[in-house]
Design goal:
Blueprint lengths: L4 E6 L28 H9 L8 E6 L3 H7 L8 E4 L4 H13 L5 E6 L2 E4 L1 H17 L3 E6 L10 E11 L2 E10 L4 H9 L4 E11 H11 L1 H11 L4 H10 L5 H6 L5 E6 L2 E4 L18 E3 L2 E4 L5 E3 L6 E4 L4 E6 L2 E6 L6 H9 L9
Parallel strand pairs: 1-2, 1-4, 2-3, 6-10, 12-14, 13-15, 14-16
Antiparallel strand pairs: 4-9, 5-11, 6-9, 7-8, 7-9, 8-10, 16-17
């Protein structure tokens, strides 16, 4: 294990695209979507062969911190980096960097809602990334070989092969590409030797990311620096209320010229919406995923999830997402999976719906 290596797990999101399973009281990262353990627990277990638990830091909101500590008993207060509220990944990562108080510490940034396997391949790529981060002032990200023309992920165009270590390839990053339309995604897929999925996982030294924040997001840097120099909680609250909510990709990675890409030779999925499950769960002969109490007749290409308090029954439908849980039911076309968050925003406008969000 590297002595000054820390795993930073981002776990402050609400997971609104996974409503009605994911709610403000129990968001996606605290749900056991695939096994008996929650996604956050899976992420911790995945990295602890490389990083001991005492050097794992989970960045989350003040609202979710008690649930995390209650749900994972071996975690302590010292494992948490608390945000007053969510301000996207640039602020979350910056806050974690300042909290380490060691310019030479290496940060391995992970998300609590990724599905990755096999573990050994991931750890191999992570080890190579950590070694390169220690060698110089690099901003490293992990790129994933596309397995399909995906419009829900961002892409990275790669350039020169810098090195190959233990079968892991490291490339110079050329540019970042936003989530593409269907035609562009198809083009990227057929040029997978040039375009990789942007995984949203990173490695760098504390000094390197703080320098990048100071250069590209000076107001975020100055605010977090002021909060780090104060022991008063109200200062952090004031700072966070004023911070620009921007991702580390938009704020830093797309602008920096010292970005390199570690190609991950492992299965990776960002479990960001209901259609993410299409790539994970086994389907029946009609291409349906059925979980819980479900009865489906003449039903094709659907995601159907019922609970123990009732039944989901379908007849003569296709390409739908139907989720029943407790007092909540979602019915949506698969093409609208990314827009469930928009539905939640609409529900927030009416008082009678707020208790169900």
């Amino acid at each position: 294990m590297v002595e000054n290596l820390y795993a930073i797990i981002l776990a402050g999101g609400r997971g609104e695209r996974f409503w009605p399973w994911s709610t403000k009281d129990k968001p996606k990262q605290l749900l056991p979507l695939f096994q008996d353990r929650t996604m956050l627990e899976e992420t911790i277990e995945r990295i602890t062969p490389l990083v001991p638990l005492e050097k794992v830091r989970i960045v989350t909101t003040r609202e979710l911190a008690p649930q995390i500590l209650m749900g994972i008993e071996r975690l302590k207060d010292e494992n948490l980096v608390i945000e007053p509220l969510g301000r996207n990944t640039a602020a979350a990562i910056g806050l974690a960097a300042f909290s380490l108080d060691d310019p030479q510490a290496v940060m391995l940034i992970l998300s609590a809602d990724h599905l990755i396997k096999p573990q050994a391949n991931f750890l191999q790529a992570a080890s190579v990334a950590v070694e390169r981060a220690q060698m110089g002032d690099w901003l490293l990200t992990f790129g994933i070989n596309p397995s399909r023309p995906e419009t829900g992920y961002g892409y990275i165009q790669i350039g020169e092969l810098l090195e190959e270590v233990k079968g892991v390839r490291v490339y110079r990053a050329v540019r970042f590409k936003e989530k593409p339309d269907a035609l562009t995604a198809q083009e990227f897929y057929y040029q997978k030797d040039l375009y990789l999925w942007n995984s949203g996982m990173f490695v760098w030294k504390v000094s390197v990311i703080l320098s990048a924040l100071q250069r590209f997001l000076p107001k975020v840097y100055e605010g977090l620096s002021r909060a780090a120099s104060s022991s008063e909680e109200r200062v952090l609250d004031e700072v966070y209320a004023s911070l620009q909510p921007i991702s580390i990709d938009h704020g830093v990675m797309e602008k920096a010229d010292n970005v390199v890409v570690v190609k991950g030779e492992f299965f990776w999925e960002d479990i960001g919406s209901w259609t993410s499950l299409d790539k994970v769960y086994e389907k029946d002969g009609d291409n349906n995923i059925k979980l819980g109490n479900v009865c489906a007749l003449d039903t094709f290409d659907c995601l159907l999830i019922g609970d123990q308090d009732g039944v989901v029954a379908t007849l003569g439908v296709s390409d739908l997402i139907i989720i029943k849980t407790e007092k909540r039911v979602l019915v949506a076309h698969k093409t609208k999976a990314q827009e469930v968050k928009r539905l939640i925003e609409e529900m927030k406008e009416e008082e009678k719906f707020k208790g169900f969000i």
